[in-house]
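Researcher: We plan to redesign the surface later, but first we want a full-length starting point. Tokens attached.
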């Protein structure tokens, strides 16, 4: 896992690597940075978190949770932060501590919106409600990354 402090600016001036989400309901991942390259994968899950690992013009090399890497046009991506619940059914709490009241559960694969992250906990939105989840239960943030 990467520390938030280990990221350097890319060609866009934004840090690399960084997390983004799919802005489109359908997005092609290509083998290279251009439409002339073959489609490697088509994603059909809007708001899916992806990690940008490189930039070339308007193209971004992205990696998904499973480690698949390829190139997407920047217009298909959003700076809105989301995360993917991992590792089975997870508890979401009213406060950022495990002794707090569990207010809902989310199954592995559910996408949550990131509202705020402390070093060990993230406040997320899901189904119109907000709750806290342990950072180890999601994919889409860096270790110790603070999100305000």
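Model: Full-length starting sequence:
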């Amino acid at each position: 896992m990467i520390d938030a402090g280990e990221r350097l600016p890319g060609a866009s001036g934004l840090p690399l690597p960084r997390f983004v989400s799919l802005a489109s309901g359908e997005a092609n991942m290509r083998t290279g940075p251009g439409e002339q390259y073959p489609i490697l994968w088509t994603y059909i899950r809007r708001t899916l978190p992806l990690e940008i690992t490189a930039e070339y013009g308007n193209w971004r090399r992205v990696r998904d949770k499973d480690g698949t890497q390829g190139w997407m046009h920047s217009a298909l991506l959003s700076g809105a932060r989301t995360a993917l619940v991992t590792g089975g059914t997870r508890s979401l709490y009213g406060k950022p501590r495990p002794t707090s009241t569990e207010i809902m559960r989310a199954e592995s694969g559910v996408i949550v919106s990131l509202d705020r992250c402390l070093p060990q906990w993230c406040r997320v939105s899901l189904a119109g409600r907000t709750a806290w989840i342990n950072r180890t239960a999601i994919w889409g943030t860096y270790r110790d990354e603070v999100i305000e």
